[in-house]
Design a protein that fits this description.
The protein is an alpha+beta fold. The protein is 25% helix and 31% strand. It is built from 3 helices and 7 strands.
């Protein structure tokens, strides 16, 4: 898998199939990488996007984050692993945590 223009998805479901709580975890995660624009509005990072797949809140992670912020990417992978969250590749296949 190349890292350019590829994203992975961290699902809001645990590997046991239970919804991850708190339910706003995606928004909280995106806001940690956000900044305020010139209009004083919060702008999400281009590397993290909220997404809904099959009715489940997910976090889309652009793989370019791994190059631009290796520590941030590692922190996200550790978060997913510690919380037993599913990680999907661009085709929707389950993949191992990339720690």
């Amino acid at each position: 898998m190349t890292q350019k223009n590829v994203e992975i998805i961290i699902e809001g479901l645990t590997r046991a199939g239970k919804p991850f709580r708190p339910s706003d975890w995606v928004d909280r995660t995106c806001s940690t990488y956000a900044s305020f624009g010139p209009d004083k509005k919060l702008v999400y990072s281009p590397y993290l996007k909220p997404k809904v797949m099959n009715g489940v809140r997910c976090l889309a992670v652009d793989m370019r984050l791994k190059d631009s912020s290796p520590e941030g990417f590692a922190q996200l992978m550790q978060f997913a692993d510690e919380n037993q969250l599913n990680i999907l590749d661009a085709d929707g296949n389950s993949i191992a945590t990339m720690i």
